[in-house]
Amino acid sequence: MSNKWSGRFNQKWLSLSALTFILVWASSGVFAQPKLSEQEIDYLEEVVIVSSRYPVPLSEVVGSVASISGEDISSRMVNDLQDLLATTAGVSVNRRQAYGRTYNDGVAIRGLGGKRVNILIDGIRVADAYTGYGRDVVDMGLLKRVEILKGPSSALYGSDGLAGVISYITKDPEDLALEGSPYLSVAAHYDSSSSRRKVGILGATTGHYFDTLVQITKHQMNETELHSGALLTPNPMNGDQESLFAKFKYRISEMSELIFTTDIQRWQGDWDLQTDTGMSFFPSIVNTSESLGTDKGNRDRFSLDYNFDSNTVWTDQGKISLYTQSTNQSQITNEQTQTFGSGLNAGPTALTAISADYQFNQSIKGISIEMFKRIENSAKTLHQIVYGAELEYIDVQRPRYKTATDSITQVSTSVFGSDIFPNKTFPDTQTKRTGIFINDRVELTDRATIVIGLRYDQYQLTPRTDKLFNNSNAAQNNLANIDDGALSSKLGFLYDISNDISVFTQYAEGFRSPDYESANLTFTNFAYFYSVAPNPDLKSEESAGFEIGLRGNHTDLNWSFAAYQTDYEKFIETDLTGATPRGISIYQYVNKSDVTIKGLEFEMQKTLSDNFAVTLSANRTYGESAGEKLLSINPSEGVISVRWRSDDGHLSVRGITTMVASGPSDLAPSCGRGGCNPILELPGRVTYDVFVDYQLTENMSTKFAVANITDVKYWDWGSVDGKLAGDTSLDLFLETGREFRADLEYTF
C-alpha cells in the first residue's frame, strides 16, 4: 500500500474508530451477551424475505429458497464467497485467472452464473464483476443471514435475475444488545489456506430511541495455498483488507424509525507476477525479467431507510430507501523487459520499464419505495400484498493507462504497436433502471395459497464517448444506445396435503438487459489479428423457469424435493461475425442459441436426539444448448452434515462430508490449427471437514476446524471446464489440500 494512500485511509480509520467507541461506551451498564440458547433457536420457525420481499416462514415459501444463518457462517468460519456457499445445494463459486491474479468469478445457481445472478446487500446491488476483480467485496463477518432465491427472479428484482438472487442481510443492533445491556466483543481468526489473519471488534447498544452497531475488521492474507501435490506455485501475494460497518437506528415514534447504514471496505494486494516473467517470441523476442502488481480498491455504501407503520386503506407498513454505493478498483502492473531486436545471440537492443494501471469504477445511486398491505375479505381470503417502485442510476468507467520508459534515455511512450494509451475498452456508460412491481400472496383456504407477481422494468443504456474511448475505437464503430422495457411475471401455488406435507409449483420469468460490456466492448489486437466490436442490435436475455416440489415439516424432520427446468432465450455470447479487408477477425456479443437447464434437488434436516442432528442436501443438474450437452454445468453433488452438541451447550462438533460426481466424460477433442487435443476430464471425489466450537468460559469461546481432512487433490469442475488435459497451467487451479482454521472470541 502506498504511503500516501495508506496514510489518508488510516487517518480516516482512526477518526471513525474513535467515534465507534464513544458511541458504544456511551451507555452505562455491564456488557453482557444477550442471546437465545441454541435449544431456543431450534424451536423458532425460520422466515425468509427474498422470496416475496417480506417475511414468510420457510415452510410456506412457494419455490426453492436456501438460507444460511449467521450461526452457520460463524461456526464454519466463513471467509469468502466460496466458503459461504460450500454447503448449499445447487449453488457454486468458480475461480478464474486474469493478469496473473486468481479470483472468485461469481456465483452460479443451478448451472448458470456470472452477471445472470443478482447479488444484493441490504437490497442494494453489489458491484459488478469485471476481468480480474471478482465479486468478493463483502466482509462475511457483517452478515447475520444470507438468503438464496433459486430460479428466475425478475418479477421481484428486475434485470439480471435470470438464474436467481443472493441476498446478504447485515446485522442489527437488537441482534446483539438489549436496552441497558450493551454488547462488546473482540475476535481473532486464522486460516491456513491463505495465511489469513483477522482481528475485529464489534459493539452494539440499544436504547429507548437510539440503537447503534459498529464493527471494525482488519484482514491480512497471502496467496491461496494449493494442494501440496501441485507442480506449480501461485504468484506470491501479500494483501490486507479493512472494513468499517456502522448502523444507527432512531425511533421517531412507536410507528416509525430511521436507519442510517455505513459500509466502508478497503483492500490492497501486492503481487509478484512470476507467471509473467520469461521469454516471449511473438511478435518480437522479449524477455520479462520482473513483473510486480498492486491491486487496490474500495467500496463505500451509504443508505438511509425510513420504516413506518400506517393503518390506511393503501398500506399497513412501508419502507423508503435512499442509497449510494461506489466501487473503485485499480490493477497496477510494473514490468522490466529486455528486447532482442537482432536475435538472442546479439544481446538486448532495448531495456524498458512498462507501467500499466487498469481501472474499473462503478457507482450506484437509487431510491426504492416498498409498501405492504394485508387484506382479508368476507370470504376469509387473505391477501398479503407488497408493491413498490425503484429508480436506479449505475455509472461505469474503464480507463486504462500504460507507458513504456526506456531505462537508458528515460524517453517514455504510450503507443504500443497500434494501441494508444490511455484508452477505454468501452465508453463511460450510464444505465438507468426504473421498475414498478406488485406481489400478492393469497391464502385461499387454510390449505391452499397462490402467489402472483408482476413487474415492469424500463432500462436505458447511454454511452458517452471521449478521447480515451476513441483511442480504442479506431474503426469508429456505431455504439448501442438501448431504451427498452421488460414485463416479468411469476405464478405459484402451494397446497397442504396434510398438516405435515405440502406440494408446490411455480412459473417464474427472468431477463437481463445488455450491459455496458456486451453492448459496447471495443478494441483491436493487431498482433493477433482480431477485434471486438459493439453490437447495436443486441437484445435482452430471457428465462422462464418451471418448478414443482414436495415439502414435509414434521416435529423432528424437515425435507423438500424439487424438480425444475429453466429455458433461456437470446443467450448472449461472443461469436465470430466477420473480418476486415486486412484479415482481422471481428468478434461481437450476439444473441445465440437457446439454453435449457433442468435438474433435481433434495434437502433434509433430521433431529435424532437432543444432542444429534443431521442435514442432507443433493443436487443433479443437466443442461443443453443447440442439442449439445452444456459442459459448464457442475457435476452432481451431495453434502451430509452431522452435528453433536453437549447437554450444557458448551461444546459442539460438526462433521461435513461433500461428495461430487465425476465430470463429463467421453468428450470430443478440441481441434484447431495445432491439431486435436483431448479435453480435461475429472474423477469424482469425497472430502471431509470437521468444525469444533467450545465455550471456554462465560465470556470466551473458541472454534477450530480441519477442512479436507484426507488431503484430497482435486479441481472444481467450474474452474477448469473446457481446458485441455495437457494444459500446463492446470495446477494453478487446484484447490487447497488439508486446511486449518481457528477463532478466538472474547465478549465483555
Attribute tags:
55% strand; 22-stranded antiparallel beta barrel; Maltoporin, Chain A; disordered N terminus; mainly beta; 748 residues; five-stranded mixed β-sheet
Q: Structural class, from helix and strand content? A: mainly beta
Q: In angstroms, what separates the terminal alpha carbons?
A: 34 Å
Report on the biggest sheet: 22 strands, antiparallel, barrel
Radius of gyration over all CA atoms, rounded = 27 Å
**What fraction, in percent, of the residue positions are helical?**
under 10%
User: CATH homologous superfamily, by name?
Assistant: TonB-dependent receptor, beta-barrel domain
What's the tally of helices? 8
CATH topology: Maltoporin, Chain A
CATH architecture: Beta Barrel
> Can you tell me the overall shape?
globular
Name of the CATH first level: Mainly Beta
- As a percent range, the share of strand residues is over 45%
Number of domains: 1
What's the overall average pLDDT, rounded? Answer: 89
Beta-strand segment tally = 45
Task: Describe this structure as you would to a colleague.
The structure is a single chain. The protein is mainly beta and 748 residues long. It has one domain (3-747): Maltoporin, Chain A, CATH 2.40.170. It contains 8 helices and 45 strands. The strands form 7 sheets. It has a 22-stranded antiparallel barrel. A hairpin with a 4-residue loop joins strand 36 and strand 37 (612-625). The radius of gyration is 27 Å and the shape is globular. Mean pLDDT is 89; it is low at 1-43.
